[in-house]
Specification:
MC_hydratase; globular; 5-stranded antiparallel β-sheet; 5 helices; 171 residues; lyase activity; HotDog_dom_sf; Thiol Ester Dehydrase, Chain A; single chain; alpha+beta
Length: 171
């Protein structure tokens, strides 16, 4: 299984469909809200959401949806990243509810060799998240600094730091 890509492996226009999707549970949403100290009743209080909002039910906090999509993209996009440089834009297009399944895909928009170091480059991507019914829920663009093949080879290959297994009796 590939984990991330080198600069040379990115092709402008390529689309990476991230799999599997993630079904969002009430627990996922509440835990994320509590960890990030977002106590808005739209996300935590079912009675409030049912009686006081246009949606009539709790809405999953948008930054959780963004975080899911970002995480889904790591094996295909930023698994070898030197740095996540910038989130250029982030839009929450439609609500996500408990029980919805979110799927992501990323399109490579551009790539630029680094001006200061020849062992890396910058890749611009757009990630889009859809629910199980195809509804677009979240779109974001970001720039990621990724290594060249030379950088990876000089630092131990695709799995740097991974120990070799020791056979029984060799210790």
């Amino acid at each position: 299984m590939q984990f991330g890509r080198t600069f040379e492996e990115f092709e402008v226009g390529a689309v990476y469909k991230h799999w599997p999707g993630k079904t969002v549970t009430e627990y996922d949403d509440h835990l994320f809200c509590l960890l990030t100290m977002n106590h808005h009743p739209l996300h935590l209080d079912a009675h409030y959401a049912e009686s006081s909002t246009d949606f009539g039910r709790n809405v999953v906090v948008g930054n959780y949806v963004y975080s899911l999509l970002l995480g889904m993209s790591v094996p295909d996009v930023s698994g070898k990243a030197i740095a996540n440089l910038e989130v250029e834009s982030l839009r929450h297009v439609a609500p996500t509810f408990h029980g919805d399944t979110v799927y992501g895909e990323t399109t490579v928009l551009g790539k630029t060799p680094s001006k200061s170091k020849d062992d890396r480059g910058i890749v611009q991507v757009e990630t889009r998240g859809h629910k199980q019914d195809g509804t677009l829920v979240c779109v974001f663009r970001r720039k990621v600094m990724v290594p060249t093949r030379t950088y990876v080879q000089q630092r131990g290959g695709d799995q740097p730091g991974r120990p070799e297994p020791v056979e029984r009796g060799e210790r």
